[in-house]
Design goal:
The protein folds into 3 domains: 3-72 and 100-178 and 266-371, 3-Layer(bba) Sandwich (FAD/NAD(P)-binding domain); 183-262, D-Amino Acid Oxidase, Chain A, domain 2, CATH 3.30.9.10; 391-477, Glutaredoxin (3-Layer(aba) Sandwich). Helix content is 27%, strand content 27%. The protein is built from 11 helices and 25 strands. It has helices at residues 15-26, 51-59, 63-66, 108-121, 166-170, 234-245, 294-314, 323-345, 355-365, 367-371, 466-477, and strands at 3-11, 31-34, 48-49, 71-73, 76-80, 83-88, 103-105, 132-138, 141-146, 151-159, 183-193, 201-205, 211-215, 221-227, 250-262, 266-267, 272-273, 277-279, 285-286, 391-392, 401-402, 412-417, 430-435, 446-450, 456-461. Strands 1, 2, 8, 9, 10, 17 and 18 form a 7-stranded mixed β-sheet that branches. The two termini are 40 Å apart.
C-alpha cells in the first residue's frame, strides 16, 4: 500500500507518544504511531508518577492497571556524615482537593508496556522498526514518509520522539541547550545494605558526591550518583555510594540497569509548525531528573494537546484552538526547567554545609511543580486551575462519590452545584452532572465547566449561565489569539 490515511501521525512510541495515541483513540480519532524501536522499554529511564498524573490517569481508566505495581512515597530525607539531617513530607498536607498525596514510584517501562497493549487491543498497534524520513506540510495537512518507502497523509503530526527529536530538527525549531557541567550515574538493582530500607527518597550529602536513593517497584532500588567525569565504571559509582553512606554500606546483588547522563536544559522556541506539526515531551523540553518532573510534564502535554485535536477534528473548533497548546504548556516547561535547575545545582557540595537546607527550601517552594498540583493556565482566580477532587452527592446516586470519578476525557463536564433553573443550550460534547450542593463545597452555588483535561474552563452563577455559553461561542466560532 503506497498511502495510508489517518488523522494523526505520532512520531515516537515513548510514554508521551503512546499516551497521545491512547487519548486520541478514546476520542474516536485515527492515530498511527511510528517508532524505530523493536519493542516497548523494558528497564530504566523515568521512575515516578506525581499526584496530578495519578489524578489524570484515573479519568482515562489507566490508574487501576498501573497503581498496584508501584510504591507510594511522599517523604524524603537528608543524611550527611552518617547522621540524620532532615525529613520532608508535611508540604503534601497543604495540597487541597487531592486524594493521592504522594508519588507512585514506578518505572517508565510499566507505562509504556500498558499503553502499547491498550493500543494493540483497539487495532492501533505501533509501527515498529520503522523511522520517519521526511514530513511535508501543506494547507490540507501533512505527508509523512517512512523508511519503508510508504507515505502517510494525515491532518496532524505529533513529534514525541525525545530529546534528539527528528521532527524538531527537520523543521529547524530552535532548541538552545544549557549544560551546567553536572554528570550523574544511575543504577537500578536489587541491593543488600545495613541501612534501614524505608519507602522514602533519601539523599546522602557528602564532599565526595551526593547520592539519591529512590525506592522503586517490587524489590528494586535506584541510585543517582553525582560523578566527577564522564568516564567511570559501575564499580566507581558504587564506591561513591558507599563513601556517601558511611558508616553504612551496600552492595548490588543484581544490577538491572546502569547508565550515565550529563544534565542538559532547554525549552523549544516553538511547539508547533503551521498549526499542523506539534512537539510534545522531551522533544520540546529537557532538564535534570531532580524533582521527577520529566515524564509527568510530557504526559501532561499529551493530556493538554489531544482534547484540542479532538475538538478541531470532531467538533468543528477552529485550528487556532491548537495554538493554546503552546501558550499553556511552554510556560509550564519553563517553570519545570527552573525548578529542576535549582534543585540540581543545590546538590553541589558546600563547605558551609548549607546545601541540604537549600535543597529542602527549593522543594517546599516548588511543590506545586513537583507534585503537578500547582500547575495552572493563566492568572484567573478560578479558570485555568485544576478541578479540586472531593466527595460529592450526585443526583441519582445513593452514595457519595469522588468528583473525579464523574469526569470523562471525551467530554467537557458541566458540574451544577445547586438548583439551576436556567435553560442550558450546550454542544453535544458537554456532559451535565447535577450535584446535590452543600454550602461547604468549594464551588457552592456555581456552575463549573471542566475541560477534558480536568482544568476549569469557565464558571457562572446558578441564575446567569451566559459565561458558559460564551466560552463555547469563543472556542467554536472565533479564532484564538
Amino acid at each position: 500500500m503506497s498511502a495510508l490515511d489517518t488523522d494523526i501521525v505520532i512520531v515516537g512510541a515513548g510514554p508521551v507518544g503512546l499516551l497521545c495515541a491512547y487519548l486520541g483513540r478514546l476520542c474516536n480519532l485515527r492515530t498511527l504511531v511510528v517508532d524505530k524501536s523493536a519493542a516497548p522499554l523494558q528497564v530504566g529511564r523515568a521512575d515516578a508518577l506525581n499526584a496530578r498524573t495519578l489524578q489524570l490517569l484515573e479519568v482515562v481508566d489507566l490508574f487501576d492497571d498501573l497503581y498496584p505495581n508501584g510504591k507510594p512515597c511522599n517523604t524524603s530525607s537528608v543524611w550527611a556524615g552518617g547522621k540524620f539531617v532532615s525529613r520532608q513530607s508535611t508540604w503534601w498536607d497543604a495540597l487541597e482537593g487531592c486524594f493521592h498525596k504522594h508519588f507512585l514510584m514506578l518505572g517508565q517501562s510499566y507505562v509504556e508496556q500498558l499503553l502499547d497493549e491498550k493500543l494493540k487491543d483497539v487495532g492501533a498497534a505501533v509501527r515498529r522498526n520503522t523511522a520517519v524520513t521526511d514530513i511535508k506540510v501543506a494547507d490540507e495537512g501533512c505527508t509523512t514518509t517512512l523508511s519503508t518507502g510508504e507515505t502517510i497523509k494525515s491532518r496532524f503530526v505529533i513529534g514525541a520522539d525525545g530529546s534528539r527529536s527528528f521532527v524538531r530538527d527537520l523543521f529547524k525549531v530552535p532548541f538552545e541547550v544549557t549544560r551546567p557541567q553536572l554528570i550523574w550515574a544511575v543504577l537500578d538493582g536489587v541491593i543488600e545494605t545495613d541501612f534501614v530500607k524505608v519507602p522514602e527518597i533519601i539523599v546522602f550529602q557528602a564532599e565526595t558526591s551526593d547520592v539519591a536513593w529512590i525506592p522503586r517497584e517490587g524489590n528494586l532500588d535506584r541510585f543517582y550518583v553525582r560523578m566527577d567525569t564522564k568516564e567511570f565504571t559501575v564499580e566507581q559509582a558504587v564506591a561513591k555510594i558507599n563513601r556517601a553512606m558511611q558508616p553504612h554500606a551496600l552492595r548490588f546483588k543484581e544490577l538491572v540497569w546502569f547508565s550515565q547522563f550529563s544534565v542538559k536544559e532547554s525549552v523549544a522556541e516553538h511547539y508547533a509548525v503551521a498549526d499542523k506539526v506539534f512537539l510534545a515531551g522531551d522533544a520540546c523540553h529537557i532538564h535534570s531528573v531532580n524533582g521527577g518532573q520529566g515524564l509527568n510534564t510530557g504526559l501532561a502535554d499529551a493530556f493538554n494537546l489531544m482534547w484540542k485535536m479532538s475538538m478541531v477534528l470532531g467538533s468543528g473548533a477552529p485550528a487556532a484552538l491548537l495554538r493554546t497548546y503552546e501558550q499553556e504548556r511552554k510556560p509550564v516547561a519553563m517553570g519545570v526547567v527552573e525548578t529542576s535547575s535549582a534543585l540540581v545545582r543545590s546538590t553541589k557540595y558546600s563547605e558551609t554545609g548549607t546545601h541540604a537546607d537549600d535543597y529542602v527550601k527549593i522543594v517546599e517552594k516548588r511543590a506545586g511543580y513537583i507534585t503537578g498540583m500547582g500547575i495552572r493556565y493563566g492568572e484567573h482566580a478560578l479558570h485555568g486551575k485544576r478541578l479540586l477532587d472531593f466527595m460529592v452527592h450526585n443526583d441519582g446516586e445513593q452514595a457519595d462519590t469522588r468528583i473525579y470519578s464523574l469526569l470523562d476525557y471525551r467530554f467537557f463536564t458541566l458540574l451544577v452545584f445547586g438548583d439551576c433553573k436556567a435553560t442550558l443550550d450546550l454542544p453535544a460534547f458537554v456532559k451535565v452532572i447535577r450535584i446535590r450542593d452543600e454550602e461547604t463545597s468549594p464551588y457552592a452555588n456555581q456552575l463549573i465547566l471542566v475541560r477534558p483535561d480536568s482544568y476549569i474552563a469557565a464558571s457562572s452563577s446558578l441564575s446567569d449561565v451566559s459565561p458558559i455559553t460564551a466560552y463555547f461561542d469563543s472556542m467554536l466560532s472565533r479564532a484564538v489569539a
